[in-house]
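## retry 2 of 3
previous attempt timed out at serialization; input unchanged, resubmitting
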Amino acid sequence: MEPNLNRDLELWKKAHERAGFKIHLIIYFIIIAFLWILWAFIGYLNDGEYIHKWPLYPMFGWGLGVLLHYFIVYRWKNKITQKEYEKLLKKGR
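## retry succeeded, writing output
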C-alpha cells in the first residue's frame, strides 16, 4: 500500500493519536476483563471462597492512565499546541 502524499499532515497526526487512544482503550477493557475472569476462576477453584478483589487495583490505576490519555488526545493537546504556536508567532520564531 502506497502512502498518500496529498494527505493533510496535521489531520493525519491527529487521526493517528486518536486511533492510538482507541487501541489503548480496547486493550484496557480486554486485559481488565481477563483479570476479573482470572479472579473468578481462582475463587471457583477455592470452592467459592473469593479472595480480596485485587483486580480493582490495576483497573483503577490503569483506568487513570486511560483517562489521562483521553484528555491529552481530545482536550488538552490542541489548547497547549495553540498556545505554543501563538507564543512562537509573537517571538518571530
